Amino acid sequence: MNRPDVVEALPRMVVDPPGVPAACRGRLTEHARWQWRPADGGDPATHVEQFLADHGLHPTDQSRPARPHPHGICGAALYVSAAAGAVLAGGAPGAPNPADLPEVAVVVYEHTDPPTHHRLPPPPWWHGPWTESWSPRQHAEAVTAIRRAIGHGDVYQVNLVGHASAPYTGDPLPALTRLGHLPGARYGGVLTGPGWAIGCASPETLIELRHRTLTTRPIKGTRPATTAGRVDLLTSAKERAEHIMIVDLERNDLARVARTGSVRVDDLFAVRRWCDLWQAESTIRADIADGLGLADLLRAVCPGGSVTGAPKLAALDHIAALEPVGRGAGMGALGWVGPDHLDLGLTIRTAAVDGTAVHVWAGGGITWDSDPDAEVAEAAAKTTPVRAALT
Q1: Total-model pTM
Q2: Residue 312 known to be catalytic
Q3: 103, 204, 323, 375: which one is catalytic?
């Protein structure tokens, strides 16, 4: 399909990817791009590291002084899907991607002057009814299957994710930009490619690297943003146990790429707001190991522990067996790579469009104490603001 009113004709407006520095907003023009799909073969992490290095971007080698790039390169957007992250971790990639977009994309940008000419109004945006990847009953049955696996000792926790899609017409970029402006969207922004676009409103840091310090901020635990909801989240033994389990997993992930003995938890179970939800977040930091490359860093942290489970590889096996549709742009990594830093968000609260449909994903972590109906309701609460922003 190649109508003038679908994503193939994009971009019609200036869009900024998540994590772009404030000084670069509205000034980016694409300099080079590399994309990867499983049929391409090879090791995507190694290719990403080499592609960025070829353009003067060495985010993990912070011994290099930051200098202006001779060709005006200011940085790059980096996207790694959940399926690609599973491949990097040596786990099951899961069901096929329901959206027609790559599993890895790197876009190198240089600066340009902000456009001064007036653009024509974009074609009106409209999307049709949502089609769910599973019914509430099927979702609840999957929760029960995970509880059964926990009872057998196969896993301690597994994150289950559902998908929905809707046909659309018009220009999706204004809607995706609205999504990125939702309150609490630490990684709000849009990444576009030939025939596809991703809009992100994620509040969660997968991995940040600045001044030789690695930081991850896992989010686990959700309640309505009311006074009672906040008290309930803070006093829930189930949510705290689930959260601490993922904190331990993330500490172990960072320890693989950190200086020995440097991993620490700076903030544990802090309650923060995203739209009309309270969420529990912790902050884990470590000093980066000498000689660490970007490829090894991606292999250590992708896919994020808060959207997989513990142990991670066993959780990936159960995800692949139970989720009927691939995670696509959801539950992956998306952010900015600069000459002297890296900042990737976890693509929760994220939507993607291809040539025919808009796609969204939402889910939650399942433990032995999970109530199937409550887990279905929690996933619906997480996706409601995303769908509303796209309407």
Answers
A1: 0.93
A2: no
A3: 204
